[in-house]
Amino acid sequence: MTARNQxxxxxxxxxxxxxxxxxxxxxxxxxxxxxxxxxxxxxxIETALGKVNTIVxxxxxxxxxxxxxxxxxxxx
Length: 76
Description:
mainly beta; two-stranded antiparallel ribbon; 0% helix
């Protein structure tokens, strides 16, 4: 299996609804693809009830297309 960063090939994005799926530049589902992981950058803020985790930026996904893993894929 080959691993690549999304900067090497920005042709894929991950659509979250109705189910997480890999789409191409034409907004079409990509055959033989899987969303493996979605991460959102987070930070803890102090509240009256203590620390609470919050999302502080856009999410990124790790996907597999055929036998290649792409990291840092943008969500849409």
